Amino acid sequence: MFSLLGSLVVFFVIFVWITDVTGSASMLALGSFIFLIPMLIITPFAGVISDRHNRKTIILIVDSLQAFFTFILTLIFMFNAAEVWIVFIFIGIRSVFQSFHSPTVGAIMPSMVPKDKLGRINGVNFFCTGLIQLIGPAVGATLLFFFPIQIVLWADVITYFIALIPLLLIKIPTVHVNSDGGEKNSFIRDMREGYTAIRTIPGLLTIMAIAMLLNMLIQPLIILMPYFIKIVHSGDNFMLAIVEMILQGA
User: What are phi and psi of 114, to 5 degrees?
Assistant: First the structure.
């Protein structure tokens, strides 16, 4: 949760910075495109990889690399060397790491919680995740009010070290996967089984289609929200945070 909060703060302040520097809706759309495309391509494969390898190691590697690149970006801002194209590269790199982090974390809970308590624990997890996503913009706006962006970016590094402590202490079960028939064939078979499960579970494919449609309709609004609030309506970061919190809460 701490790591998620740091990521949300960084995501908020980066897109605020892009809005302030460029004042362009096209640049915001391009930044969001760079963030979304790696996730769309990599996430399905990352889920299979997380099922076949040590999940704790995967999380440790991607979180460490993400914190490292955030540290590099912080230094770039400190030396006033930040350019929009550099930030876009950083956004793309973070997207790759997030593509591995999200499915891996999502797969850990069922392996650690008894089936009879999984529904309750999932409910608590979704509530806490939603709460963090709700307050993330507010934290980012508050930090930007008191500190420059090069200081606010340290939030991601600090929350990484906070999250690192329980990650190292908690034992995460390793799922043993039968790889008969070769590594490549087994990987393809796992992908096929996931696709088959989506098709065979009643109503799941319909729910996914509706979710994709709603996401496609609302994404342009979310992507351009910093432009609407700060450029079109001359608002500030707190106004943007309030609107994003309302959208998240809804």
Answer: -60, 145
Say which CATH superfamily domain 2-249 falls into: MFS general substrate transporter like domains (1.20.1250.20)
From the DSSP assignment, how many helices (H) and strands (E) are in the chain?
10, 0
Residue 140's alpha-carbon distances to 8, 13, 155, in angstroms, are: 8, 6, 9
What does the alpha-carbon distance between residue 6 and residue 143 come to, in Å, rounded to a whole number? 12
Q: Using the 8-state DSSP alphabet, how is residue 180 labeled?
A: T
The predicted-structure confidence for 145-194, as pLDDT tens digits, reads as follows 999 999 999 999 999 999 898 888 888 777 655 555 555 556 677 777 77
- Total-model pTM: 0.85
Q: What residues does each domain of the chain span?
A: 2-249
d(CA 235, CA 87): 23
